[in-house]
Amino acid sequence: MGEKITADLKISGMHCATCSLTIDDAIAGIGKGTTAQANFGTDSARVEFDPAQVSLKEIEEVVRAAGYDIIHDEVVLKVGGMVCATCVETIEKALSALAGVVQARVNLATEKAYVTYNASVTSLDDMKAAIEAAGYQYLGVAEELSLEAEEKARRKDLSEKMRRFSIGFAVSIPLFIVMFLPLTISMETLSWALLIISTPVFIYVASPIFRAAGNALRNRTLNMDVMYAMGTGVAFGASVLGTLGIVLTREFMFYDTAIMLASFLILGRYLEARAKGRTSEAIRTLIGLRPKTALVIRGGSETEVVIEDVVVGDILVVKPGDKVPVDGEVTGGESYVDESMITGEPIPVLKTEGSPVVGGTLNTNGSFTFRADRIGKDTALAQIIRLVEEAQASKPPVQRIADVAVSYFIPAVLLIAFSAFSVWYFVLDATLLFSLTALISVLVVACPCALGLATPTAVTVGVGRGAELGILVRNGEALEVADHLTSVVFDKTGTLTRGKPDVTDIIATGIDERTLLAIAAAVEKNSSHPLAEAVVKKAEAAGIPPEQSSEFTTFGGKGVFARVLGEEVVIGNRALMAERGISISPESEQQITALERDGKTAVIIAIAGVPSGIIAIADTIKETTPYAIRELDRMGLSVAIITGDNSRTAEAVARQVGIRTVISEVLPEDKAREVEHIQKGGGVVAFVGDGINDAPALARADVGIAIGSGTDVAIESGDIVLIRDDLIDAAAAIQLSRKVMQRIRQNIFWAFAYNCALIPLAAGLLYPFTGYTFSPELAALAMAASSVTVISLSLMLKRYMPPAKETGVRGA
Length: 812
Description:
By secondary structure, the chain is of the alpha+beta class. It is built from 29 helices and 30 strands. The strands form six sheets. Strands 18-30-29-28-19-26-27 form a seven-stranded mixed sheet, sandwiched between helices. Strands 10-9-11-17-12-15 form a six-stranded antiparallel sheet, with no helix packed on it. Helix 7 (224-244) runs antiparallel to helix 8 and helix 14 (449-468) packs antiparallel against helix 25 (728-762). The radius of gyration is 35 Å and the shape is elongated.
């Protein structure tokens, strides 16, 4: 067996929750290790298969045979070097051999290749390589149609549904009115007139329902289309039998009901499809950020090329109002760049020589050139899109409740419908007309679609909203686990603090501060230790040129030694001073203790064997850290700090930010063990770290939150990745997770409540007590309303702003 690959299929024609189960079963039926996870909420399916044994075309044929269709990406490539029909065949074969290419057509006259493909499996780079390997020239993209193709298919589907509803509604209302008018014509004439008028309209309006029901039955599956086909079919069939006088009389005139039922069912699907389309707006917005062209300097002049032709190392020009095409580093000029679409940060950032820039961001006022470092699928934007798509395709565990309910739902409804008919007609001696009405109403009112949409629509909208806020949720399970958190554990360095030590105090003894700093910098410039770099940076900022030094020596974990101006200079901690026989005065000892109590590292400087001063260095707290900790406290979460620093330094930082639990002097490899210890005590733990040194702890935690990743979003250890280096987003991520899960629970509740309330009502349960029964037309309207209600509740997440971000600036 070969290595499995993953393909994301965009599927049209999914009408209800059972459709996703049908697709899963159909693809799994291929065997050979092929698995699928269809998502009704996003109209997609994630398929894992071995291309050595199963082709993507085979998988798509199985999906089509199950009654659904596939929406492909399309691209037109310009190809050079073709001279005859054999060239056409060669290129078509080369492209068709790629795992994700469904169809390749080459036009010799226009020198273009028209490729239908799945972008999750095969990229344009793969096509370029295939064309060049076949001995031809890849000249770039002539026309890209993927987003447009998807939107066109969606608009066509909505237009068709609205047309069917409009015609059905326009015909059924007059027919409904006619049934109550005192007409002079006979009932026989009227019934034949209704049959002639209704039949073509019913066939046109209801044909999608019957077609889908037929596909389901051919695949031995019961779905909502089967029930709706039975409901509308019984209504229309009874009318035809009544008109013909076979078994039934002309009392059974349901023509208007049958057409109105089908019309309302189609209206429900129209509203559902339109609302579902809005759930993926966030991902479409992200995809829309990709620039289509770039201005590249080649041969000394500016040349506009399609984005796919940019290569690493190209120098690109970005003018005011243009989007940055790919990721890279500024090589000349300066400008303010709006990065809000990537980071959520509203204030434009100044970019000068050496500054990183991100593809998809907007240049505002100046012009600059930059070198392309990451292109195509390696750019930050492409990685963010991939993360969001993967998260939207995933299912949180709570979805299993809905999946199990849906699998039993339709058989249960069919049982209830036929039981209601049997009880009313055979047991309670109700009329056949009343009994049939109850049967039709139950079949039409039942709706597992609301149940099937409850979770995926909320996850899709919630994950998309997170991406807009700079919070990337990697999967649906992370949302659910984050909702149950009891503890949040923070790494200290680089998470609570800036991770860049600064000199905070200079205490000179016997010499002035500038001289002390100059001598210290002369020694420390030879070291790459962060504390040494802080001293050198301080001297540079003060405009102090460091003296020359010699005989530089380091003492691991204790300090350094060198000669400056002929004198021995020792810089380090108490242990090094004791080793070198240098005594520290009680007054200096008190100063060192006081500095350490404030979380600072005291570095002692001794010149010619005499203590000459102390330089205090500290990793400063991020500005928004205290507010973020207060926000987590307000959410009822236990907050702890974990660090390799000594307890005194750790306690000082904890005091400054408001954390009461401190776990200090922990080696990086032991942080995961400390997280596990909290979990064994019954805690559900989120670990917040920088994703570099904290990978084991991030992986061990129930939810790993990688913070401050900037444009490097491919952090495998984090379940939630924060683009900005701001702890407020960690609190916001948990609040977003809670909100999404709250909305999922609301959706599931309303979906269950709707069916539990209306199915008995449609079956006529209240009729003996109130004389009221649920008409089939109202049942169809209620069915449509249930799905739309659930989707609308999910769409409200698009406007959700986590409280931490609403008041973050004020609170900080």
